[in-house]
Amino acid sequence: MAEYQRHEHDVLVIGAGGAGLRAAIESAHSGASVGLICKSLLGKAHTVMAEGGIAAALANVDDRDNWKVHFADTMRGGQYLNNWRMAEIHAKEAPDRVNELEALGAVFDRTADGRILQRNFGGHKYPRLAHVGDRTGLEIIRTLQDHAVHQPIDVHMECTIVSLLKDGNRISGALGYDRERGRFKLFEAKAVVLATGGIGRAFSVTSNSWEYTGDGQALAYNAGAALQDMEFVQFHPTGMVWPPSVRGILVTEGVRGEGGILVNKEGRRFMFDDIPENYRGQTADNEEEGWRYTQGDKNARRPPELLTRDHVARAIMKEVREGRGSPHGGVFLDISWISSKLSNAEEHIKKKLPSMYHQFKQLADIDITKEPMEVGPTTHYVMGGIRVDGDTQMSSVPGLFAAGEVGAGLHGANRLGGNSLSDLVVFGMRAGKYAAEFAARQSSAKVDTQQADAIVRVALEPFDRAGGGEGPYQVEHDLQTMMQALVGIVRREDEMRRALEALKTLKERARKVSVTGNREYNPGWHTALDLQNLLTVSEIVARAALERKESRGGHFRDDFPEKDPSYGKFNIVIRRGANGEMQVTREPIPEMREDLKKIVEENK
Amino acid sequence: MASNQSFAQNIVESGQRAAARSNTSAGTETRAATFRIWRGMGASGQLKDYSTSVSEGMVVLDAIHQIQAEGATDLAVRWNCKAGKCGSCSAEINGMPRLLCMTRLSELDLEKPVTVEPMRAFPPVKDLVTDVSSNFRAKKRIRKFTPRPPDAPDGTWRMAQSDADRVQEFRKCIECFLCQDVCHVLRDHQLHEQFVGPRLLVHAAQLEMHPLDILDRTDELKESHGIGYCNITKCCTKVCPEHITITDNAIIPLKERVVDKHYDPIAKLVRLMRGSKSTDTGQGEAQ
């Protein structure tokens, strides 16, 4: 039997970004003993990268806003594939969760009368995003972190989970290793909350860090939970494109919210060229009106740069593909032009977009107060994930919960900017609450050490082949390049079939990778283990994308470029079959409640 | 429309000029460079040279990753966002505390080997990774945010942007701990348990100056957080990647509060005459 450090918790929360921290705080508040696992150091999770803001219908800036409009905006943005119950809960509870962040110490930007200021963002009808300059995510994660360290929560930093453990049907814990020493840790838990974030590292151009290897999605899948909507990957329209080493780093939508415009190399503001039918009534038809909207004119409609991310990303791709792109394969995003409108434009830009100013100055030698940026799409977010109950966030495996990006349902086919931070706190709170309730009803789960020993043996195999095979980095790199090319922003059946073939070869290669050195803080070994999860989620994305023979939201099929209403009636669900094969099914979306239907109609 | 067209044309021209400039200044031509990287377990180790092909538009973290992929697969380095926002990849580059992800090679002399070492103020773990857990322990010792009762019946507060601005400067901190690394009290004297260090003083400052917070942490700043150890050399301010004016805006005002409370002869006299203990001012209100 392998040696383990053993830990016992009522609730084990895996992942310590906004969702994981909020879940842990709630579970602890409910009286559960809580363990919190961070893949990195506490406070470094991807939530720190969120820039623009957190969406909540506080109606501080425009009193016409309320939860119903937020609900309707979220459903429209998600092209009605959303779990409408989650969209309802989210719109109703987000204001309370934002106010609660203030009660925990968050300092948002203010309105003239001292309330929380809100800004415009793509797809939101009214100014709705509470924000702190362009570092809202940092504010939120730090607020939650600083609160959590004073709660009875055991934090396990730099710890990676390699497998969930089950006792019969129900969850019983998890097995992981600590990065520093490479020792295995055995967690016994009555309930587990997955809050591990996304899958961005499956692609080569991404805003995501090394951590986002689809761990939670793969852990849940391997434990028998169902995943849904995995074909919907959000390519954020504006990532940096130059110089090459910064390609993919995010340029916040806040730039456009503050009046930034997109221009092709011919000097055309191309976003006016193609405004989707369902947004025509809400979109400005001239530049002046668009500008007035960004400056808070309630009678103006939003500029087309603030259409949903899927649409803007494809419009940029089109310009680049048709030869109208900027010198380094993007388009121009310009905020400096507002100097013709505002006398203090330079100061204004630095105050509203401080991290963007520094990011471009330092990494690209561009002064955004004077020059345009070059931007292009970057893999940002996965709308799909673990299929959960809308109220409790429990997955199809009893005792296994999911919240935040790793969960699915709220965003449907496309996520609105700002709806992620609110997702984290609304459903993080719920997952923590219901996981603690679930745990309170359970007797201790039994952890099977034989099960654990087998997992450990497999995890250590890369060392047994030391020097004998190829290293993990090349396989990871080839996987990312392949996924970007064949299952990226524009998809086709033949290419995705090739992707599935390529995945078979990559899996073979991954099974044989070898690593050198010892188990202590060995990134080669960590990459070899993460690679398994990346391969699993890549296959899930490809299979789901093949199944959806239409274009909708984040999923664009070159061979089926139109939206097909018959595909609006179900989610694509993937689970592991009895013989380990990937099962793809279509699960009908439950009929929307009448009162909610009415809200959608009224806000059309 | 004609004026619109020329306006957009200006953007394109300006963008093309910037792009052309960055073809040189962003530096995509490749060349060989040597990185002299600390390799070691715990306290023992040595600098080891790695040669790799780089372009000047790369940052040091890119070079480290490339060296990992080219064979040093077990080279340990912390990193996350690669955009200067998470504060994970702190190290010492040519002896200067920097973020690996925000240090462009174009800023460095590539004719000479580029030295990359772990932060020296913290116990070494492996290669570029150090044990920074003392910072997390120190934060637990600082009493948490405690707001005044809400201002409005709906449970919310009001505050002016100007009041928010003051603490927003401190709340920008990305916890890279470079200020801790360069602080001689921690680096040379290793007083991690006696002195919380500049990062945590910034944390204390944002709490003390928070428009809603009502606790008074002056006593513990003096007694257990060791604010007296800081002798205002301002090294921390110089290395802060977020440009927080740590010494002038955070530490000195806190020191003044401590002095006002504990060393102000008039205040002391008043306290003596009222027969109260030196620790109860402010605290009483907070409870």
Specify Rg of chain A, calculated over alpha carbons: 23 Å
Helix percent of chain A reads: 25-40%
Please report the number of helical segments of chain A. 16
Mean pLDDT of chain B: 89
The CATH topology label of the largest domain in chain B is: Fumarate Reductase Iron-sulfur Protein, Chain B, domain 2
The biggest beta sheet of chain B is recorded as: 5 strands, mixed
N/C terminus separation of chain B: 65 Å
Choose one word for the global shape of chain B: globular
CATH class of the largest domain in chain B: Mainly Alpha
Tell me the strand percentage band of chain B: 5-15%
CATH superfamily (homologous) name of the largest domain in chain B: Alpha-helical ferredoxin
Based on the coordinates given, report the CATH architecture of the domain at 237-378 in chain A: Alpha-Beta Complex
User: What's the CATH class of the domain at 237-378 in chain A, please?
Assistant: Alpha Beta
Largest interface: A-B, 90 and 83 residues
Largest β sheet strand count, sense and barrel closure of chain A: 7 strands, mixed
CATH architecture of the largest domain in chain B: Orthogonal Bundle
CATH topology of the domain at 237-378 in chain A: Flavocytochrome C3, Chain A, domain 1
**Low-pLDDT segments, ≥5 res of chain A:** none
Number of H/I helices of chain B: 12
